[in-house]
From TrEMBL:
PANTHER family: HTH-TYPE TRANSCRIPTIONAL REGULATOR LRHA-RELATED (PTHR30579:SF7), TRANSCRIPTIONAL REGULATOR (PTHR30579). It comes from the Bacteria. It comes from Shewanella algae. Keywords: DNA-binding, Transcription, Transcription regulation. The gene is cynR_1. PROSITE patterns: HTH_LYSR. GO terms for molecular function: DNA binding; DNA-binding transcription factor activity. InterPro entries: LTTR, LysR_HTH_N, LysR_subst-bd, WH-like_DNA-bd_sf, WH_DNA-bd_sf. The keyword Repeat does not apply. The lineage of its organism: Bacteria, Pseudomonadati, Pseudomonadota, Gammaproteobacteria, Alteromonadales. This is Cyn operon transcriptional activator. It holds the Pfam family HTH_1. Belongs to the LysR transcriptional regulatory family. Residues 2-59 form the HTH lysR-type domain.
Length: 288
């Protein structure tokens, strides 16, 4: 094992070219320094210095070790500095809708974790209604949430458009009681489906309740049900249904917004918000 204090002394000797001058530099006696160099040579099993009346020069093995010694000292300093800086590690608790977590991880959250190593980012997923409630209960510092109304105490990121979708050439949407695949309770999209469903419309049967947009799409593509699907997820295996023609509840435009806990207005949270906003500029071409 190469001890840091021995490498420090070895570097001093290599730079000074003289044991006495090196001893002064590292605040040791020449005899103590000479003993350290001997221990280092015993550790590597090779002579590191050639001594004469003019001073010392490095052997070939000494030159090789010197390069590694500089790197090891640099890593040692970096590790100590980082540990010192991270003694008061800040924690950010972030809530993200379950169906969008893949997008946010791919586009900005992983980047934030890698760049800000002294900030612990704790991510939890849930439906937007639950995220908003938990934010006000103090469980989160920051959330991304979807709502059909403009944010009152949040910052709008962008709008999401949803459409009623059925399987292309399918029959699920023609049934007397319409089978639906919806997001779980407390999801604003699900809430608007039932809020806008009139008694004069065809009855609804919730066949599938899931936070997974992939599961919703699969249920539609296999003609098991219809579903409110985000515009960017609609593919050539689906057809868009006109809500008036098919007697379905209208779907409003949904707003995706940032909501910050007033007690969490820290520089770290501001950095995360800036990164979220910067990466969402290309949202129209992203696959979530």
């Amino acid at each position: 094992m190469l001890k840091i204090e021995l490498l420090e002394s070895f570097i001093a000797v290599a730079e000074c070219g003289n044991l006495s001058k090196a001893a002064e530099k590292v605040c040791r006696t020449p005899s103590a320094l000479s003993l350290q160099i001997k221990k280092l040579e015993e550790s590597v099993g090779q002579p590191l210095l050639l001594r004469d009346n003019r001073g010392v020069v490095l052997t070939e093995s000494g030159n090789t070790l010197l390069n590694y010694a500089y790197k090891m000292m640099q890593l040692n300093t970096q590790a100590l500095d980082e540990l010192k800086d991270c003694q008061n590690r800040e924690v950010i608790r972030l809530g993200v809708p379950t169906d969008y977590i893949t997008y946010y991880l791919d586009n900005c959250l992983l980047e934030f974790v890698r760049e800000f190593t002294c900030i612990e980012l704790v991510i939890d997923t849930d439906v937007s209604g639950n995220l908003y409630k938990r934010l006000h209960q103090g469980e989160f510092d920051l959330i991304v949430a979807t709502h059909w109304q403009p944010p009152v105490q949040g910052e709008l990121l962008f709008e999401r458009r949803f459409h009623w979708v059925a399987a292309k050439n399918g029959s699920a949407h023609k049934r007397e009681t319409i089978p639906m695949a919806l997001y779980p309770e407390n999801c604003p999209i699900r809430a608007q489906v039932f809020a806008n469903h009139q008694l004069s419309m065809r009855p609804i049967n919730v066949l599938l309740s899931t936070p997974s947009p992939q599961a919703l799409c699969m249920a539609v593509e296999n003609d098991l049900s219809i579903a409110p699907i985000a515009e960017f997820r609609i593919n050539d295996k689906m057809q868009i249904l006109d809500p008036i023609e098919h007697d379905l509840p209208p779907l409003p435009v949904f707003n995706e917004s940032l909501y910050l806990n007033p007690e969490s207005q820290t520089e770290a949270c501001n950095q995360l918000i800036a990164l979220l906003k910067a990466n969402l500029k290309n949202r129209n071409t992203a696959v979530e």
